[in-house]
Amino acid sequence: MISMVMVAVGVYARLLKHAEAAMACLAVDPAILLVVVGILTFLITFCGCVGSLRENICLLQAFSICLTIVFLLQLAAGVLGFIFSDKARGKVSEIINGAIVHYRDDLDLQNLIDFGQKEFSCCGGVSYKDWSQNMYFNCTATNPSRERCSVPFSCCLHDADEAVINTMCGQGMQAMSYLEASAFIYTNGCIDKLVNWIHSNLFLLGGIALGLAIPQLVGILLAQILINQIRDQIKLQLYNQQHRADPWY
């Protein structure tokens, strides 16, 4: 049911977007990610649920194999991310830069970036000047946009007593030096902030990974136990049928 809700929300969010803008940022669209995860989750849980209810060995094996693949992929991603941390950092930087380019094209993506910048107190990928990659915030003299050389309001230092957020607080910040801009906005990039947060919360992330891994391993184990029980029942039924056909039985 949860996976079906995820798919419905993702499809609804996707349909609400303008067609051209949606196609432009297809690779970084949160709605697409929600739909894909929802569909995969539904297929896996459907095999497990129906397979256990109907005692279908094929569906249970599919459920067990899919869970095993997901578990191994998670494990491989964690190990490779640790070993090739520089390449992983480069991939994250590429994703963030792509999101910056399409910031104004997708409202969901825009809200996600704003949330991340406010939560991590950062701006851009490496620095606040990365926002020049966006066509609206580009700092070249030929850019006709009113937001030229600006940064999103989520980069701004907010006063706790401020009742109304000034959405134009990032105006012209890219034209300032780091020292001048640091009085008004976060100048550090989100990549370094994210890396520092990961290093500071390794135990938390390890606990989350363990919390995700244990149900998967339990599901694989239970599926295999049920498969063996079904096979034993089939063998017992065949044995009884053969002996009932025996005239000396």
Structural class assignment: mainly alpha
Q: For the record, give the distance between the C-alpha atoms at the N and C termini, rounded to a whole number.
A: 50 Å
Q: If classified by CATH, what would the architecture of the domain at 87-238 be?
A: Orthogonal Bundle
Helix content: 55-70%
Regions with pLDDT < 50 over 5+ consecutive residues?
A: 19-24
Strand/helix succession = HHHHHHHHH
Main sheet: strands, sense, barrel? none
Radius of gyration: 26 Å
Number of helices: 9
The tally of strands reads 0
Average pLDDT for all residues: 85
CATH topology of the domain at 87-238: Cd81 Antigen, Extracellular Domain, Chain: A
CATH class categorisation of the domain at 87-238 = Mainly Alpha
Q: Give the full name of the CATH homologous superfamily of the domain at 87-238.
A: Tetraspanin
Shape: elongated
Strand content: under 5%
